[in-house]
Design goal:
This protein is of the alpha/beta class. 24% of the residues lie in helices and 28% in strands. A hairpin with a 2-residue loop joins β1 and β2.
Length: 360
C-alpha cells in the first residue's frame, strides 16, 4: 500500500508544480490575468524620460540680482547645447524644475542656470535658494531646447525679469555675428533685473537695448517696441503671462512669434474650460470620474498613488502617459506633435469628449 500512496503523492506534487509554473508564466504575460494580456506598457517610460540623469557638482553660487541666484554646475562629458535650451534640475526633495541655460555654449565643462526666488511659489525656487550650495551635487536631465534661435533677417526681444535667462545666450550669439537685433527689457526695478550690466554693454553699439524699470517708468510700451518691424523679423518673448499676451496682441501680421513660458498659461489650468468625463485605467481594470475642477493626475493618484509626477504645470514630462482611446485636450508646453498623437501629460491635459482610456 505504501508504494501506490507514494506514487500518488509524487504525481499530485508534480502536477501542482507544473500548474504553478504555468500560472506564473500566464501572469507574467498579463498582470491582470485572467484578463487578456496587454502589450508592454509605455506609460511613464517615454523616450524623453529615458534621458540620462547626471550628477553635477555645484562649483559656483552667485547672487546676480535681488532674489536671483546663479549656479555653475560642473561635470565631464556634458552634451552640447544651443541658445534657448533648458535643463531639468532634480532637487533634493525629488521635485523636478526646469531652468534655462544662461552660460556659454562653448563651455563644455559646465552648465549655468539662474533662478528667482518666488515667495508664493510651489517650493522649487526656495529649495534652490536655500539648499543648493557650493560643494553639493545635483542631478540634472537634458539639456533640451523648445525655444531655439531661428534664422531671420532681424530680431526683436521683449523680456520681463527672469525671462532674460534663455535670451542672454541668444544676444551674445547675435552680437558676435553682427546680426540686427533689438531688446526691450522690463523689470520691477533695475536691482531686480539679472545680467543688466552685461546686456547694456552688448547693446551699447547702436542703442539696441531699452531698459524699462517699473519703479521708474512703468510698463514697456509694447506697441512702440513692435513698431516698424523689418519684413520677416522674428519676435521673441519670455516673461510673465500678461507681457506675452500683450506682445501677441500687438504683433503685426507676417512676423513669427516665439514664446517661452515659465508657468502654465492661466487658461490651461486643470479643469478650466471643460466639463467632467470618465477615465478608464485599462491595466488596473478601474474606471474613475474626473470632475470639471479636477486634474486627471489627481483622479489617477486617488486610485494609483504610485504614479509619478513633479511640476504639475505641463513642463517636465514626468507624468506622461499613453492614451489608448479618447480625444485629448493637450494643454502642456512640452510634447512634440508626434507624441501628442498617443500620449498626454496628465497634470494639465484633459479629454475633449466624455471618455478617456489610459494605459495604466
Amino acid at each position: 500500500m505504501a508504494l501506490p500512496r507514494l506514487r500518488t503523492v509524487v504525481l499530485v506534487s508534480g502536477a501542482a508544480l507544473l500548474t504553478r509554473r504555468a500560472l506564473k508564466r500566464r501572469i507574467a504575460r498579463s498582470p491582470l490575468w485572467p484578463l487578456p494580456a496587454l502589450p508592454e506598457p509605455v506609460s511613464g517610460h517615454s523616450k524623453r524620460r529615458a534621458t540620462a540623469v547626471r550628477k553635477l557638482l555645484i562649483t559656483g553660487r552667485t547672487v546676480v540680482a535681488d532674489g536671483v541666484v546663479q549656479l555653475r554646475l560642473e561635470g565631464a562629458g556634458l552634451p552640447g547645447w544651443e541658445p534657448g535650451a533648458h535643463l531639468d534640475l532634480v532637487l533634493p526633495s525629488g521635485l523636478v524644475r526646469q531652468y534655462s541655460l544662461c552660460g556659454d555654449p562653448e563651455d563644455t565643462g559646465a552648465y549655468t542656470v539662474a533662478t528667482r526666488l518666488v515667495e508664493d511659489g510651489r517650493g522649487g525656487s526656495r529649495e534652490v535658494h536655500e539648499q543648493l550650495q557650493e560643494g553639493l551635487e545635483v542631478e540634472v536631465r537634458g539639456p533640451r531646447n523648445r525655444f531655439p534661435l531661428t534664422e531671420a533677417p532681424g530680431y526683436v526681444f521683449v523680456v520681463g525679469g527672469i525671462g532674460i535667462t534663455p535670451v542672454l545666450p541668444m544676444l551674445r550669439s547675435l552680437a558676435a555675428s553682427g546680426a540686427d537685433w533689438r531688446l526691450v527689457y522690463g523689470g520691477r526695478s533695475r536691482a531686480s533685473m539679472p545680467f543688466l550690466e552685461e546686456i547694456e554693454k552688448l547693446g551699447a553699439d547702436g542703442d539696441r537695448v531699452t531698459v524699462v524699470a517699473q519703479d521708474e517708468a512703468g510698463h514697456p510700451d509694447i506697441a512702440a517696441a513692435l513698431g516698424g518691424l523689418a519684413p520677416g523679423s522674428a519676435v521673441y518673448c519670455c516673461g510673465p503671462e500678461p507681457l506675452m499676451d500683450a506682445v501677441a496682441a500687438a504683433l503685426p501680421a507676417g512676423h513669427p512669434l516665439h514664446l517661452e513660458r515659465f508657468s502654465a498659461a492661466s487658461g490651461d489650468a486643470a479643469g478650466s474650460g471643460s466639463g467632467p468625463f470618465e477615465l478608464e485605467l485599462r491595466r488596473s481594470g478601474r474606471t474613475v470620474p474626473v470632475a470639471a475642477g479636477q486634474s486627471v493626475l489627481a483622479a489617477v493618484r486617488a486610485e494609483l498613488p504610485h504614479v509619478a509626477y513633479s511640476c504639475e504645470q505641463g513642463f517636465c514630462g514626468t507624468c506622461q502617459q499613453r492614451v489608448l482611446a479618447g480625444e485629448i485636450d493637450h494643454r502642456d508646453e512640452l510634447l512634440t506633435d508626434d507624441e501628442r498623437g498617443d500620449s498626454m501629460l496628465i497634470c494639465v491635459s484633459r479629454c475633449r469628449g466624455e471618455r478617456l482610456v489610459l494605459d495604466l
